[in-house]
Write a structure and sequence with these properties.
The complex is a heterodimer of chains A (141) and B (182). Chain A is mostly helical. Helix content of chain A is 76%, strand content 0%. Chain A starts with 5 loop residues before the first helix and ends with a helix. In chain B, 61% of the residues lie in helices and 3% in strands. Chain B has helices at 3-9, 14-30, 35-42, 46-58, 74-97, 102-112, 118-132, 136-147, 167-170, and strands at 62-64, 70-72. A two-stranded antiparallel sheet of chain B has the order 1-2. The longest helix of chain B is centred in the middle third of the chain and has 24 residues, at 74-97. Chain B is elongated and about 65 Å long. The mean pLDDT of chain B is 87. The chains are: A mainly alpha (141), B mainly alpha (182). The A-B interface holds A 15, 18-19, 22-23, 26, 74-78, 92, 95-96, 98-100, 102-103, 106 and B 15, 35-36, 43-51, 54.
Chain lengths: 141, 182
């Protein structure tokens, strides 16, 4: 059983909370940065990903609250004012989605033995993998 | 090229310099480093680290093995060694010699360490060799500098350092009356 206190678990959850909020911010920017006809192709995907990522962040925040803690958010996002192709936007999305899933996997190791939390994290990992699979499919030549 | 534009042409940004130095520090301490380790060290998200590392991997500065362990390339190692040296030199110049508060010297060194040229850094090394040699001219120089009266009541017109206005006042801690500059 994980011997982390609720405050320590919340601290770990704050990390994934930050990953999700930051990813949502990046999706928001990517949607605006894609130029040309690509925009027609990927805008819907990026919009959907943005909304789903925000939902994930809300779920994490709720989980932190259920531990009797208040979510803490520390992010630092810098998105350059450079136009992107649809493919480049999807590549960037894949980069931070893979980072997010690794963060969840780290969390899973930290909370090993805490079955409800483990199950919650596993479910989140499954959702993240769906995101990644979609992005990889779209990036296939 | 105008000098201020060169900031954008610098081989690595301030952020990139910190990522490289964090990686170097972690590898020295633990023998390996992953994205998660750098994220914790810099207190930022993995997403940020991954996004930042991507161009550095493409530029051949960072190498990732099959276990996702990261290391610096030889080129990156040289860059990191140079930046660390410059940080130490600038911090020492500001703190030990000029008498700037240690914490402030560290902050200032951090801000410019990656922007200073190797040529200027080499001159700083030479200067510290002069100081550290402890020969009489260096001891006299330090003694006179430390005893120098920091207060200044000279008329700028007759001051050898200033021209039409007191440049010391331009960098005073408290803004002058009516001064709206940030």
């Amino acid at each position: 059983m994980s011997d982390l206190s609720n405050a320590e678990i919340a601290q770990e959850l704050n990390r994934v909370f930050a990953e999700e909020v930051e990813a949502a911010t990046r999706y928001l920017h990517l949607r605006s940065a894609v130029r040309g006809l690509d925009r027609l192709v990927v805008e819907g995907v990026l919009k959907e990903a943005f909304e789903e990522t925000i939902r994930h962040a809300e779920v994490i925040a709720q989980k932190i609250r259920s531990l009797g803690q208040v979510p803490q958010l520390e992010i630092s996002v810098s998105c350059p004012a450079e136009p992107l192709s649809g493919r480049e936007a999807l590549r960037q999305a894949l980069t931070f989605e893979e980072a997010a899933v690794e963060c969840y996997q780290d969390l899973l190791r930290r909370v090993e033995g805490n079955i409800p939390l483990e199950e919650f994290v596993r479910a989140q990992i499954a959702l993240e993998f769906e995101h990644i699979a979609l992005l990889k499919e779209l990036l296939t030549e | 090229m105008e000098t201020w534009k060169e900031f954008d042409q610098n081989i690595i940004s301030h952020s990139a310099a910190h990522h490289l130095m964090a990686l170097d520090d972690l590898v020295r301490r633990y023998g390996y480093a992953r994205v998660s380790d750098i994220a914790r060290q810099l207190n930022i998200t993995r997403g940020s680290v991954s996004i930042s590392l991507k161009p550095m991997k493409e530029a051949g500065l960072i190498i990732q093995d099959e276990n996702r362990h990261l290391r610096l390339s030889e080129k990156a190692q040289r860059l990191v060694d140079a930046i660390k040296t410059k940080r130490m030199l600038i911090r020492r110049l500001f703190s030990d010699l000029l008498g700037v508060d240690v914490a402030q010297a560290e902050i200032d060194a951090c801000k410019i360490e990656h922007l200073v040229s190797n040529a200027s850094a080499r001159q700083l090394v030479t200067f510290f060799r002069f100081i550290d040699a402890q020969e009489q001219p260096a001891r006299d120089f330090l003694a006179r500098w430390r005893a120098f009266d920091r207060a200044c009541d000279q008329d700028p017109a007759s001051c050898p350092t200033c021209a039409s206005e007191c440049i010391g006042e331009n960098v005073a801690d408290t803004p002058r009356e009516g001064d709206t500059r940030e």
